[in-house]
Amino acid sequence: MALVVVATLVPNMLNTWASSRLHPTLNAIVGMLTPPLTGVLGWLWLGESLAGLQWFGMILTLVGIGVSVLRPAPARTGRDR
Asked: Per the confidence metrics, is the pTM higher than 0.70?
């Protein structure tokens, strides 16, 4: 029962709450942070070992998030409004 509440119910309720309050782009960016954050926390707190390819994937994910955050929004035309 604890697994249902802690691992499924609470995260889904928080995600639903955040999705209704955050801009969709920001919500997607936060969601993209989950895999690298999970890997680093498992490495730090649980002593998990990570292979070089896993570190590379986390770095690649963070670079992609950085590009999506730093890239300027496209200019709007009169038809987009």
From this structure: no
